[in-house]
Model the fold of this input.
Amino acid sequence: MTIGVVVCVPMPISESAANQAGWCIVSQGPVPLRSWWAPAGGSAPTAGRTPSRRKAVLVLPEVFGVNGWVRSVADRIAALGVPALAMPLFARTAPDLELDYTAEALAEGRRHKDACSTEQILTDVKAAITWLEAALKPAEAAAAPLEITVVGFCFGGHAALLAASLPEVSHTFDFYGAGVVQGRPGGGAPSLDLVPQVQGQLTCLCGTADPLIPAADRRAIADALASADPSGERLRYEELAAADHGFMCEARDSFDAAASQRGWQLLRESLQA
Done:
């Protein structure tokens, strides 16, 4: 697999560009999005251009930006046979943000988080989806529509819940998205209020030892999903015992191997269904 720079412009993407991994500039929206593109590299039957089922994943990062760990998530998904694009959430204030997991980095990331809005997030998500549809445009006119899965972690998990309200999104995985009970980026009603608008599948995963998502918030999330989908088949909530915030990330002290394994299991099952 070749690593390089892909210029993502609002026009049909060439086969060679769509198959080239590396940084890209998604320019379909009002601001350029410096993103990480990981084309499908595995042999799973759900690879991006399979005629019967076409899938792609949009990865939304923590407040630390599209750093090495977030890029590794996109690469790992691509290795399952599903192409993935990791996009920034702070393109207007920190377009090249790549932070480590120090306290100073967390403070910087939170400053950018506080400066972004729900409208900006959804606008950028739509732009990224537009590029994915162009990059993975099939040769067959009658091919199945592209199924978009959005996967987000931390603030990216909160953003993923917002993205789940878009009709273009088929599946969403919200990993420990905090603050959804209290409000939404830029102000307004709690993001959790959008759950009834979710048309696709949504899975929310929280750790019981997460100080950013206390028990009352976890109950509110579970209740909102159950109210909108009493069967629990489309909107799912799962708690991971003793898991802290950031349990999916190997680069963080709060990484939990068992909880991470469960998260990847659910994601893999969804992508390979």
About this structure: The beta strands are 3-8, 21-26, 33-38, 54-60, 84-86, 146-153, 169-175, 201-207, 235-240.
